[in-house]
Design brief:
Rossmann fold; binds magnesium ion; 8-stranded antiparallel β-sheet; 33% helix; binds adenosine-5'-diphosphate; D-amino Acid Aminotransferase, Chain A, domain 1
Length: 448
């Protein structure tokens, strides 16, 4: 096992990594930007170093400073968390060049999956059904129109470098093709420095169901079941749960094994998520792979009892997986609400600022992953996630009841949060019923 790890991230995920390291007996090195000096990850790590000013490009994405801190502090490995450096293959290479272990898959695997158009082809070759579309990158308007004529509208233009819901445009008819390609490309260029797009059929009323996978360096791959992330706003997740209310054990087993075999074929190490869309008839299509730990990983931890962060760090340190597929059992149901510093009555506008009161909920079946505390000032420079409230129960019904209680107990004052929105959702009959939830749920029910 490593003796010391540098955490190249901030917020709740930096804390989550520190907690895993503490349990593994690994020392931690935090990095932070100037406005994050008072952040909890700085206070809880064994050592902490400022790597630059507020803009992420000068701090959390400042490769030379991060590497310098790692070398100077004697860290053996770097954990990138999610966002920032997590899916940056060049950064994984640079770590290697400095004899630092990048806690994640190989740079080759990140590259292979990070380009979404190529990833679809790779997974198709490995035996996974994929969302129907045009193969590879294209901006060829006549070709797209010709394809859409047979495939049918609506279609979706997607940035091949996309992430966080950015660089996606719905095209409802032929007249919109050209303009939507231009606007998706422009957004992708601005957000990812890469304008390339690919074309998919727009799946009507899909559920977003994803599978967690865990792989070691010796060819062992297991899946830890599914998560349903269909409650979204602008293609970004708001509520996640495990298992999906519409998944059956037989289908989980079938899809899970297809995924395990595909992941074995590509040669992958660490944690990862295969994101799929399921249509009304439970036909499923590979959409993308996230080659990192995900925001919503706790719901899987709650129902499997497996600490995903510890497993991720252990396999990165060269240990063999000790869990076999037959050991993975699913216990009850877990739901996660993303608590954001946003005003849900004003189009979810981010509202950073000073938290003047913070009382976290507790009791059986409640988990809070948050870096916030009374007196903490949320800086305006990064994402608006204040924390995650996770409720676990024997059944989905019990998990919802616990989530309602947790949300009622959670007192955050000084800034608006999405707690009132989640309270409404946990009492909203179509959500509670659970069967008719699709990615357009929020729009369909006029919740946005
Ligand atoms: P998850 O699949 O874990 O729910 P999200 O899409 O919500 O992931 O993203 C998690 C975090 O990572 C967010 O802060 C998001 O802005 C960031 N992120 C996701 N993809 C990218 C990307 N390609 N480039 C930069 N940041 C990204
Ligand atoms: P990101 O990299 O930003 O996470 P994804 O490819 O995972 O992008 O898509 C994000 C969300 O957009 C999905 O969860 C789904 O709601 C919607 N989406 C993406 N592709 C399609 C599609 N072909 N048809 C319908 N919805 C889609
Ligand atoms: Mg995605």
């Amino acid at each position: 096992m490593f003796k010391k790890i540098l955490i190249a991230n901030r917020g709740e995920i930096a804390l989550r990594i520190i907690r895993a390291c503490k349990e593994l007996g690994v020392k931690t090195v935090a990095i932070y930007s100037q406005p994050d000096a008072e952040s909890l990850h700085v206070l809880l790590a064994d050592e902490a170093y400022c790597v630059g000013p507020a803009p992420a490009s000068q701090s959390y994405l400042n490769v030379s400073n991060i590497i310098s801190v790692a070398l100077m502090s004697g860290a053996e490995a770097i954990h990138p968390g999610y966002g920032f450096m997590a899916e940056n293959a060049d950064f994984a290479d640079i770590c290697k060049e400095h004899d630092l272990v990048f806690i994640g898959p190989s740079s080759q695997a990140i590259r292979q999956m990070g380009d979404k158009a190529t990833a679809k082809q790779t997974m198709l070759d490995a035996g996974m059904p994929v969302v129907p579309g045009i193969d590879g990158i294209t901006a060829d308007v006549p070709k797209i129109k010709a394809w859409a004529k047979t495939a049918g509208y609506p279609i979706l233009v997607k940035a091949t470098a996309g992430g966080g819901g950015k660089g996606m445009r719905l095209v409802e008819d032929e007249s919109q093709v050209e303009a939507m390609i231009q606007s998706a490309s422009a957004e992708a260029q601005a957000a990812f420095g890469n304008p390339d797009c690919y074309i998919e059929k727009y799946i009507l009323k899909p559920r977003h169901i994803e599978f967690q996978i865990l792989a070691d360096n010796y060819g062992n791959v297991i899946h830890l079941g599914d998560r349903d992330c269909s409650i979204q706003r602008r293609h970004q997740k708001l509520i996640e749960e495990a298992p999906s209310p519409v998944m059956t054990p037989a289908l989980r087993e079938k899809v899970g094994m297809t995924i395990v075999n595909a992941v074995k074929n590509i040669g992958y190490e660490g944690v990862g998520t295969i994101e799929l869309l399921f249509d009304k008839d439970m036909n499923y299509y590979f959409m993308e792979m996230n080659t990192r730990i995900q925001v919503e990983h706790p719901v899987t931890e709650m129902i499997t009892g497996i600490d995903l962060l510890k497993e991720q760090i252990k396999v990165a340190a060269g240990e063999k997986l000790t869990i076999q597929q037959k050991d993975v059992a699913f216990n009850g149901h877990a739901i996660e609400c993303r608590i954001n510093a946003e005003d849900s009555t004003k189009n979810f506008m981010p509202m950073p600022g000073l938290i003047d009161g913070f009382i976290a909920p507790g009791g059986i079946g409640i988990r809070v992953d948050s870096h916030a505390y009374q007196g903490y000032k949320i800086p305006p420079f990064y994402d608006s996630l204040v924390g995650k409230l996770i409720a676990h129960g024997a059944t989905r019904e019990e998990a919802i009841i616990r989530m309602r209680r947790g949300l009622d107990e959670f007192a955050i004052t000084g800034i608006p949060t999405t707690i009132p929105f989640h309270q409404k959702m946990m009492n909203f009959a179509p959500f509670v019923e659970g069967k008719e939830i699709y990615t357009n749920f929020m729009i369909e029910h006029q919740l946005v």
